[in-house]
Amino acid sequence: MKKLSSALLALALIPASQALMAQDENLTIGTNNWAENIAVANMWKILLEDEYGYDVELSNVSKNALYTAMAQGDIDISMEIWLPITDKPFLEPYEDQLQVHDAWYEGTGLGLVVPSYVDIDTIPELVERADEFEYQGSPSILGIDSGSAIAGLTDDAIEAYELPLSQINSSGPAMMSALDSAYASEEPIVVTLWSPHWAFAEYDLKYLEDPKGIYGENETIYWFSRGDFASDEPWLTDVLNAWYMDDDSLGGLMATIEEVGDPVEGAQQWIDDHRDLIDEWLEVEAEAP
């Protein structure tokens, strides 16, 4: 099939019933403050609103609130669940009410990260070197919000490795601001980070080896929904199942947003520059009955 070259042509290929159904249809996407989550949620909001007539709301909530609201039907979908380990505790209470769909990214990373100029390579080395990682007067690991999965795993790591450091929880942007400041001065700092993340393109960073496996192995990112979403939205379910990104495409989207400084403008710029890839995801529309 010839690739679509514009939003108008894309819309023209939607079956008439689908085009009518999408007009003014409400869709709530649950989001959190992870960089890749904000990036892909804004990308899909733009595509579904501008090209298919959906009215999309992005609902930014904590992990616990996200799963509860989706199970209650107040949130339709979320673009990101890490399995089999990281988000399993959040999913387990609602397994009968939520549905995990196809993977869109494989090979995640998760753990404690330091700039490459820091001359340690493993988490246990932090025990003897803790005083080098002072933040606001005490040895610290800088993390994101306390309700996140990585925050809980970091508490587990502090206990398992008997680390004489405390985790300071804040927002993702606040953590990245502290990393940027330390990096500019080549000062030691340890933060909680994950892959994919635009920081690995911006800075020379490394994961500290985790011999106890607290942070688990590489995982896969799926999208998920309330349990009856696929029956309510079979076309959109097929489209999202066809969606797949690798390090280059996802890293490029996040980097564009970071460079532009706005998730909406950055996502729009990336969409304009990557129509061929996007049209591959959307080709399912031409096959719909």
Notable traits:
44% helix, three-stranded antiparallel sheet, 22% strand, disordered N terminus, 289 residues, 2 domains, membrane, globular, Glycine betaine/proline transport system substrate-binding protein, signal, D-Maltodextrin-Binding Protein, domain 2, 15 helices, alpha/beta, single chain, cell membrane, five-stranded mixed sheet, amine transmembrane transporter activity
- The assigned structural class equals alpha/beta
- Give the neighbour order of strands across the main sheet: 2-1-3-11-4
* The first-level CATH class name of the largest domain: Alpha Beta
Topology, number of strands: 11
**Count of spatially separate domains:** 2
Oligomer, anyone? single chain
Helix run count = 15
What is the C-alpha radius of gyration, as a whole number of Å?
A: 20 Å
Sheet with the most strands? 5 strands, mixed
CATH superfamily of the largest domain: Periplasmic binding protein-like II
Amount of beta strand = 15-25%
Shape: globular
* CATH level-two architecture of the largest domain: 3-Layer(aba) Sandwich
CATH topology of the largest domain: D-Maltodextrin-Binding Protein, domain 2
